[in-house]
Amino acid sequence: MxxxxxxxxxxxxxxxLGIMRERSFPADEVVAFASERSVGKxxxxxxxxxxxxxxxxxxxxxxxxxxxxxxxxxxxxxxxxDAGAVVVDNSSFWRMHDDVxxxxxxxxxxxxxxxxxxxxxxxxxxxxxxVALKPIFDVAGxxxxxxxxxxxxxxxxxxxxxxLHTQTRAIIxxxxxxxxxxxxxxxxxNVLPQVETFMDGDDYTTEERKVMAETRKIFGTEDIGISATxxxxxxxxxxxxxxxxxxxxxxxxxxxxxxxxxxxGVTVIDNPGAGxxxxxxxxxxxxxxxxxxxxxxxxxxxxxxxxxxxxxxRKGAALNAVQLAEELLTRNLxxxxxxx
Length: 340
Fold this sequence. Notes:
340 residues, alpha/beta, Rossmann fold, Dihydrodipicolinate Reductase, domain 2, 6-stranded mixed sheet, 5-stranded parallel sheet, 30% helix
């Protein structure tokens, strides 16, 4: 089995390569692709050398894991699929296409069965939220969902991580701050109520629209009322989500705690009196979505509040891509090389 990793030099792409090694993904050959400026460069901690995307170089793959941005996915994902590969794409470009399944391994793996060569990975904030909420959705139903995210800068990319580091160092050393280049305002020691951009005439950002639309698609229903506010915080890795969940049936915090403790991909950390609850610093580098502060909303008899944290680079992107690849293998949905 030949596997292509497109965008292999980026934060998510390099994490995909690491997770494939950690999980002993059964690839006979892995080929790293990236932008033209990276062609010929070695990938750190591997024996791979970056290849360029051409009509010839993309032939003969069974699987392609993409994390190269929407424009590159729009152009090259269909070409890989036409050449016989199954593409798992991390960009936002294919997510809301009706004929492309949007899949989270613990939530709706059965959606893979109808793929036509393209499979989409959800937004990182959506990802960890639906992993935590799907068990509640199945047992008690969800009528309304209000989410507020606290998103780490690594979700924007390495330049954002560098900008936070540079600004923090300048402030600590009492030096003059450079003008921000990644975010519209200083991110160090600040909080920005804007993740991604505002489209003309829309009071919600593109990130907030993604969370709302993708959650409905993954759950397979338009009947959930969803409101999202996405916020960028000066944290390197690990997104936090405050979720107010109004259920169809009455459901207690105790029942919710017990349910989530048994849910796949979820770890419950919920002893706030002892200072035990999910934190980005604790979730970074881990695979589980952590849930805590599970409590009744005192303003509504059928609403719960939850605090959800996950590593945005791992479960929020790279890990789920590899898990979907594993699921495609398990379901016998990957093409095989032609017999010699």
